[in-house]
């Protein structure tokens, strides 16, 4: 009996070692050293006459955001972590229209929207009209991971944020002097009101993630929700095709289901990422609507926009690191 027991234990140990090694080997085969990440900080009329100090501030902010994501991916991190952390930084940066520095509604308050999507399994989380959540992108991820739902809105989303312990702030936290001044004037010809932020990345395991966060349109009607928290319109990620984050006039991106259609044109018609993106942005949408950033399953990337400028950046495992505002 003792011999049989010892033999069974020995066989069990050998089986465990074999299966564990097989699992490690399989994972190692699936891992590459390749990654790509793209970011945006809004598209629209961006005057080339803006002060050099303002231009430098935007460029530096884009570089910091891009570096955060690049470092996560270079160390073998997940694309969804890179996307969340990049957007959290941009939500803290008053240069962008998300989180701190979000535009004002017509009522003089702030309502923020965000979404995040994992291309591995199409899991998604989103929030809209939140008023006290410091990092809407993180709450969106919590919706994805801790609920059976996709989108929470308004007071319900704020309440969920309190319940799970994300960082809560007073609505006035999002105020900035520049946004307040622009709201009072109701116009600004230097940098227009499109300032959504977004990030798309593919990690070393071939997983694509995308996220978008915004304060919406300046002087927007109370309760207005744009494309940023709407999967298929402003955000989409699918490992079979690509990941997309949009910025611009949300109503137009919603009506044209822009983010998903880029993926669909690739999957169903065999278009390249650039062909699909340009089809939606340059042919389907009217000039001045906005733009998108995207990464496909092979690590190729594209920026497509029909506005004078778009705050954007790209980095990859080949050493590319670049940020731009205009063409």
3D structure, described in words:
The protein has helices spanning 2-30, 52-74, 79-92, 136-146, 154-164, 177-185, 250-255, 258-269, 273-284, and strands at residues 36-44, 112-118, 123-130, 151-153, 197-202, 208-214, 235-237, 242-248, 290-296, 301-305, 309-316, 321-324. By secondary structure, the protein is of the alpha+beta class. The chain has two domains: 1-30; 33-324, (Glycosyl)asparaginase (Glutamine Phosphoribosylpyrophosphate, subunit 1, domain 1), CATH 3.60.20. Strand 7 (235-237) and strand 8 form a beta hairpin. Helix 2 runs antiparallel to helix 3 and helix 8 (258-269) crosses helix 9. The longest helix is centred in the first third of the chain and has 29 residues, at 2-30. The chain is globular. It starts with a helix and ends with a strand.
Q: Kindly state the percentage of residues in helix.
A: 25-40%
CATH hierarchy: architecture of the largest domain:
4-Layer Sandwich
Return the domain count: 2
The CATH topology of the largest domain, please?
A: Glutamine Phosphoribosylpyrophosphate, subunit 1, domain 1
Strand order of the largest sheet: 4-3-2-6-5-1-11-12
Contiguous low-pLDDT stretches (5 residues minimum) are 22-29
Distance between the termini: 79 Å
- Protein structure class: alpha+beta
User: What is the chains' assembly state?
Assistant: single chain
Summarize the structure.
Helix content is 39%, strand content 23%.
For the structure shown, list the relevant keywords.
327 residues, alpha+beta, Glutamine Phosphoribosylpyrophosphate, subunit 1, domain 1, 8-stranded mixed sheet, 23% strand, globular
């Amino acid at each position: 009996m003792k011999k049989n027991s010892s033999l069974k234990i020995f066989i069990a140990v050998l089986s465990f070692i074999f299966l564990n090694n097989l699992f490690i080997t399989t994972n190692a085969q699936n891992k590459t050293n390749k990654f790509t990440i793209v970011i945006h900080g809004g598209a629209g009329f961006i005057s080339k006459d803006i002060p050099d100090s303002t231009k430098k501030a935007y460029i530096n902010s884009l570089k910091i955001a891009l570096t955060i994501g690049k470092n996560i991916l270079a160390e073998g991190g997940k694309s969804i972590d890179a996307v969340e952390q990049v957007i959290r930084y941009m939500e803290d940066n008053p240069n962008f229209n998300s989180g701190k520095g979000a535009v004002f509604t017509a009522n003089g308050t702030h309502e923020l929207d965000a979404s995040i999507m994992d291309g591995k399994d199409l899991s998604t989380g989103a929030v809209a009209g939140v008023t006290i959540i410091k990092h809407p992108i993180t709450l969106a991820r919590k919706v994805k991971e801790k609920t059976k739902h996709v989108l929470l809105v308004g007071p319900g989303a704020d309440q969920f944020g309190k319940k799970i312990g994300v960082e809560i702030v007073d609505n006035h936290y999002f105020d900035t002097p520049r946004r307040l001044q622009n709201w009072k004037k109701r116009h600004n010809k230097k940098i227009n009101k499109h300032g959504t932020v977004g990030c798309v990345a593919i990690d070393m395991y071939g997983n694509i993630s995308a996220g978008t966060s915004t304060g919406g349109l300046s002087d927007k009607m109370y309760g207005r929700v744009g494309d940023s928290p709407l999967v298929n319109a402003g955000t989409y990620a699918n490992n079979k095709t690509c990941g997309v984050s949009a910025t611009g006039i949300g109503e137009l991106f919603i009506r044209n289901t822009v983010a998903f259609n880029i993926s669909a044109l690739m999957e169903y018609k065999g278009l390249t990422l650039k062909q699909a993106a340009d089809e939606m942005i340059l042919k389907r949408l009217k000039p001045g609507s906005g733009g998108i950033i995207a990464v496909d399953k092979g690590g190729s990337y594209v920026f497509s926009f029909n506005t004078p400028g778009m705050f954007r950046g790209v980095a990859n495992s080949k050493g590319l690191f670049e940020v731009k505002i205009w063409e």
